[in-house]
User: Which sequence fits this backbone?
């Protein structure tokens, strides 16, 4: 690029940012390709900052202004953040209300300033790491649960070790005190789960989607259960098998690399922690009927799943750009239910609901910790999975924390038993949960 063209683009981006900053006035900056920081508000600090590494980024977004294009540019390092994570950027932006302010920006002035980028070469980004099949899995015939799970969880056990707790728990932690560290909060989550299920010595316990085996080992070691786990992830299965041997639990804990629908046993207690959102809403009735068929008389079932707010009209998950990105780059086949529909389907499947507890703020903090821990170990992560996967996971974890903080995503633990005419298999109060 020759000097006049470079100068023209620099003048243009300064004009654009100045116009936006006049109306937006947030404590952030934009760092552009020549290293200059352009404030997005009055006396905005240099950091945290959004980063644009080359003018072709603007050209690319003018031609295809989609979240998917932005994510690809981000995955390839063409855009990014400096001096903090996406969470820090969102918090800084949230300090000032922007409602209505963007409408005040002169569209004519922006359009004129953008002219130098319209015909200029765009940043070239090939598709980032993404699921190659039907990532939505809208129909039963097109869903491949094994491929969905493998895409996310078989990335690398060592990669997940970089940001998870020592027990390798990859679901929402439970903070009895907000200042607790991640290891304590995940231990307390497993404790709370076992207490809600009222697991006791000799109980046959099933964990559907057992991950790296933390909960089945915990239930056997601390509550005397005979525990069994199922997973579709080969990486998780291999790790859990070794873990069971290492902890000397081979006589009480088993695991199989299998679909939960192929399990043909009865259990006194069943948990599904962070698996519900992976099955698709259309499959919920089949899922709950199967769980009901595996639950022994007097047994308890705990369903722990991410949800979204209920809508006036039922629409498929995945219509919004951020939802499409989630299933394409992170969780293919994933779909969020709302808690009202979950409760309705539980009752239709023959369950009686005893308790529904929201853990939204707990997951906001959990995912924030994961994001910060992974960011702190960037070099190790890149060495294990590559720059693109690292960047996508960091922005995914940050996005989750933002969504749970703002309430656009929720998470609930729902305790249920098989419907009976007599006494329910739970105590008269919840006092035993908080001993």
Assistant:
């Amino acid at each position: 690029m020759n000097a006049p063209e470079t100068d023209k683009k620099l003048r243009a981006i300064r004009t654009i940012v100045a116009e936006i900053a006049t109306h937006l006035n947030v404590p952030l900056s934009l760092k552009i390709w020549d290293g200059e920081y352009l404030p997005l508000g009055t006396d905005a600090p240099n950091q945290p900052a959004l980063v644009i590494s080359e003018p072709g980024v603007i050209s690319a977004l003018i031609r295809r202004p989609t979240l998917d294009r932005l994510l690809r540019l981000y995955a390839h390092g063409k855009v990014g953040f400096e001096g903090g994570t996406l969470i820090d950027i969102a918090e800084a932006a949230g300090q000032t209300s922007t409602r209505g302010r963007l409408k005040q920006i002169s569209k004519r002035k922006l359009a004129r300033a953008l002219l130098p980028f319209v015909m200029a070469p765009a940043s070239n980004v090939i598709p980032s790491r993404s699921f190659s099949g039907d990532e939505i899995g809208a129909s039963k015939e097109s869903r491949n649960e094994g491929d969905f799970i493998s895409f996310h969880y078989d990335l690398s056990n060592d990669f997940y070790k970089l940001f998870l707790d020592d027990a390798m728990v990859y679901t929402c932690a439970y903070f009895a005190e907000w200042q607790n560290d991640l290891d304590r909060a995940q231990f307390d989550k497993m404790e709370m789960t076992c207490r809600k299920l009222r697991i006791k010595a000799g109980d046959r316990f099933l964990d559907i989607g057992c991950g790296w085996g933390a909960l089945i080992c915990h239930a056997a070691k601390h509550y005397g259960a005979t525990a069994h786990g199922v997973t579709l992830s080969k990486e998780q299965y291999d790790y859990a098998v070794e873990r069971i041997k290492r902890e000397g639990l081979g006589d009480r804990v088993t695991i199989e690399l299998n679909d939960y629908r192929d399990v043909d046993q009865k259990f006194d207690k069943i948990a599904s922690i962070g698996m519900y959102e992976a099955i698709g809403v259309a499959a919920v009735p089949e899922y709950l009927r199967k769980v009901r068929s595996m639950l022994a008389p007097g047994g308890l079932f705990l369903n722990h799943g991410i949800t979204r707010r209920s809508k006036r009209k039922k629409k498929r998950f995945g219509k919004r750009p951020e939802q499409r990105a989630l299933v394409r780059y992170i969780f293919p086949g994933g779909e969020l239910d709302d808690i009202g529909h979950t409760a309705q389907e539980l009752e239709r499947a023959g369950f009686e609901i005893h308790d529904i507890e929201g853990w939204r703020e707990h997951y906001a903090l959990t995912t924030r910790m994961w994001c910060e821990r992974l960011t702190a170990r960037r070099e190790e992560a890149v060495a294990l999975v590559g720059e693109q996967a690292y960047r996508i996971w960091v922005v995914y974890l940050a996005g989750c924390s933002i969504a749970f903080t703002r309430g656009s995503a929720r998470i609930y633990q729902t305790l249920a038993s098989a419907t009976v005419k007599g006494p329910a298999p739970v105590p008269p109060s919840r006092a035993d949960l908080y001993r």
